[in-house]
User: Fold this.
Amino acid sequence: MASKNKELTPVQQQYQRLQDKNEPKRPLLTNCIKAFFVGGFICFVGQLISLMYVNYFNFTEQNVGNPTVATLIFISMLLTGFGVYDRMAQFGGAGTAVPVTGFGNSVIAAAIEHRTEGFVLGVGGNMFKLAGPIILFGVFSAFVIAIIKTIVIQYGGL
Assistant:
């Protein structure tokens, strides 16, 4: 902040001090607790879905992850469409953004926002603006890890 103040005029520095003084204090601890419990609840629901797939649909512990994630994304998309997920996000903050449900929310929220522009140019063209970089990073990271694993296994690591 000190380097910023050197670049500002005295009037701008005075305004900056006034702004800093009058800025409302954020309840950091309360926000963290809310995010913890909301994110934990989402994970709890995910665990219940996982147990349902294992007990009623004969999935194993090793292969239950994919249908559980797909179900959580689908539920978050439905809740976003009905406006429920946005209210949860206002209350829980980052607790709703961190789990995989935040991904589903970001995709559907962009689609809903641009639906007036039509299905192709509006929904299709803007749906992955926010989620696209996340998908790209995930695919690229998986590729790099696969290359590293292949090299380690090939040359006698594991």
About this structure: The mean pLDDT is 86. The chain is about 80% helix and 0% strand. The CA atoms of residues 19 and 156 lie 60 Å apart.
